[in-house]
Amino acid sequence: MLYSMRLPDGLGNLNREVQQLPRNNWQELEQKLFLRTVNRVPVTLVRGQGTLAWDDQGREYLDFVGGWAVNSLGHCPPVVVEALERQAKTLIQASNQFYTIPQIELAQLLIKHSCLDRVFFCNSGAEANEGAAKLARRYGKLRLNGADEVITTHSSFHGRTLAMTAATGQSKFQEPYIPLPGGFVNVEYNNVEAIKRATSEKTCAVILEPIQGEGGVNVPADDYLKKVQGWCQEKGILFILDEIQTGIGRTGTLFAYEQYRVEPDIMTLAKGLGSGVPIGAFLARENVSLFSPGEHGSTFGGNPLVCAAAHAALKYIIDNDIPGQVKRVGNYFMTKLESLKRQFDSITEVRGRGLLIALEFNQEIAGKMVLACLGRGLLVNEVKPDALRFMPPLIITEKEVDKAIGILGDVLGKNAKC
Ligand SMILES: Cc1ncc(COP(=O)(O)O)c(C=O)c1O
Considering the entire predicted model, what is its pTM? Predict the structure, then answer.
């Protein structure tokens, strides 16, 4: 069957060529149509339900990628689908010049269950961090004699906008875009002294991930965040937590900061907040909430459709103590991975919290493992050439963990030089 969807004008010869491709050849189409920003895993997902997904050939997969730590309640969770259906028939988009109820209800829930006082809604993690950095600059201008520098850490990841590329402490993301916007200083993670040394009269804030996700699931010392917060308080600078990957139950509490006995001045969220729908947010303490009308904005931020879905997901997560479930199943998963480690010398470390876990090897086999797991019906992520990351839906069961462990054990037996 030929591909017959009408393609946008302006593709010239490519347009005609692409229209001749067989309909099921989505991967070939993608090669021709997209800017080359990602090496995709060779599977075309067409459907998902709970912890399972299916491809265009009808093959079933147990999903331990979870939309990249996004599908908190799994694929197409009924509460989110119902909220979307209801809201889609009521009000999909309105300008932020008007009050809309779903975003106010979502704000109420977030404020009630966090240590923060005010919220701004946007569309992604990068946009949330941009907003947080802008708010930190306003704070610096108004309260810290114009201080405008934000301290960030090596191996962090804060997003793909130009400013967040500068904030992200990984040269592979930065080098293609040099010169980058100024105002960010990268220092070693899990090292309070490095933050102290980098602090000057120009510093307005420190931004950290409670656990670094994209950097390889790096868990800091138990007292790191507490010490950084203490330093920020001593210097009167802002303590910002990027909970975009760790938030909304992922690590076994609603927010990871709860486990480290700290309270940020600003916190950013995205990913799991919408359980599949695109939404970001940053929350701030009252004394930090210094924007004046017109100083920040977002056309789609707080969109009623998305906020209704996020509210339904968040309410479900809180009412059903999903973070408690994450803690239990996450511990079970870690125990099982530890026993795999005892079986295979090629595994050097198991690390993480809740359902954000990495498995590190003594060789660069993660890419091969991803493909081998795919062949056995398990979706996993290569976070580094020598490490896999697991970020399944938060509703995963012990039985599904057992299934994944069985596949990982078989695949390791075949792919690792033990
Ligand atoms: C900790 C953290 N911050 C920010 C981002 C950027 O989020 P987004 O891709 O939604 O812009 C990510 C994405 O992986 C992340 O893990």
Answer: 0.94
